[in-house]
From TrEMBL:
Region (Disordered): 1-40
Name this polypeptide is given: Cytochrome bc1 complex Rieske iron-sulfur subunit
Species annotation: Isoptericola halotolerans
Keyword set includes Transmembrane helix: yes
Coiled coil regions, renumbered to chain: none
Length: 348
């Protein structure tokens, strides 16, 4: 083999160097392509009027949101609450989307789109460099034409000034409202209140449940009560998940005072996650774990619904249950502690 003959490895290295050079030539900034609004004053004027119109629509949306808040109040029914919420959402969306769409269209059609390249330098710029930077900003403002477009400035300021009213008015008007957090300490559950299937309201017998089965439970109520807005509101605090385990699998089913809170392996726990209040309803039969779908907090139903994983830091409150003379499952009392996430006034 001659001295000047390359080895296979050297040939590969040479090809890699040719295909992937260490340095590339700077292609520079491509030539600027003028937009129609840059060369046609009439087109620029049309876009200015369009942007002002969109800002105007945003203002109308903000004003409509305030009007809806006072004119379409929830009337105590589910349909009334949905209507009020939907109208508020739509009007607030119009207000905020109007600002966003108008700002984007303004930037794309009227503001300067020239590309500028600044060489990288140390953070502590010299006074001369800072003076040049300030001059560039001033040139950009002049090039964008903001100073001579009074209509757009007025429309933008009006839209930005009115939009905060969409959430400021409801916040201010709620001052002095119902801040009684002690109501979270009590639910519809009381002594001898029967457990019923959700949503039918049919009472549950202990014999109806087989080992491994789970049921979504609400307090028993008449059909008339179940249609009222007040009952629906209170029901949201009283929802329970009922699970029947093998009694031998239960590691904890007693109150701190030693009372038994389960019946023949049947346990009942609040469905409201102690993290942020999501509905906990994903039950895994083999592990007896209950999963919150929002943030994956996991509770052990066989061990007092204690937290085994996730951000929740408290077990689910347990509903003490037993059976009545007819074999129906009933509550021994309300939850022993407040349901749901923690709050400032909570004692435990």
């Amino acid at each position: 083999m001659s001295d000047n003959q390359n080895t296979p490895g050297q040939d590969v290295a040479a090809r890699d160097t040719a295909a992937h050079p260490e340095r590339f030539e700077d292609p520079g900034v491509p030539a600027h392509r003028s937009r129609l609004t840059d060369v046609d004053p009439q087109a620029a004027k049309r876009n200015e009027r369009l942007i002002a119109l969109i800002f105007g629509i945003s203002c109308v949306g903000a004003i409509a949101s305030v009007v809806v808040y006072f004119a379409v109040r929830p009337d105590g029914t589910t349909a009334g609450t949905r209507l009020s919420t939907a109208l508020l959402g739509v009007t607030m969306a119009i207000s905020l989307l109007g600002i966003g769409i108008a700002a984007i269209h303004w930037a794309k059609s009227l503001m300067s789109d020239h590309e500028h390249v600044d060489e990288r330098h140390t953070l502590a710029s010299s006074p001369e460099v800072r003076q040049v930077a300030v001059q560039h900003l001033a040139d950009g403002v002049e090039d964008s034409g903001i100073a001579r477009r009074g209509v757009l400035k007025g429309a933008a300021v009006s839209a930005l000034a009115l939009f905060p009213l969409t959430f400021a008015v409801p916040l201010i008007s709620s001052v002095g409202g119902d801040w009684n957090v002690s109501k979270f300490r009590h639910t519809l559950w009381e002594r001898n209140k029967r457990l019923a299937y959700d949503p039918t309201g049919r009472p549950i017998r202990a014999a109806d449940l087989t080992v491994g089965s789970a049921a979504h439970v609400i307090p028993e109520a008449s059909q008339e009560e179940m249609q009222s807005h007040e009952w629906i509101t209170e029901k949201a605090k009283a929802v329970v998940l009922l699970v029947r385990l093998n009694p031998e699998d239960l590691r904890s089913d007693q109150s701190p005072e030693g009372e038994t809170w389960s019946y023949d392996g049947i346990v009942a726990y609040s469905k409201i996650c102690t993290h942020v209040g999501c509905p906990v309803a994903l039950y895994e039969q083999q592990t007896h774990h209950l999963l919150c779908p929002c943030h994956q907090s996991t509770f052990d139903m066989a061990d007092g619904a204690k937290v085994v994983f996730g951000p929740a830091n408290r077990p689910l409150p347990q509903l003490p249950i037993t059976v009545d003379d007819e074999g129906y499952l009933v509550a021994q009392d309300d939850f022993a502690e407040p349901i749901g996430p923690s709050y400032w006034e909570r004692l435990k």
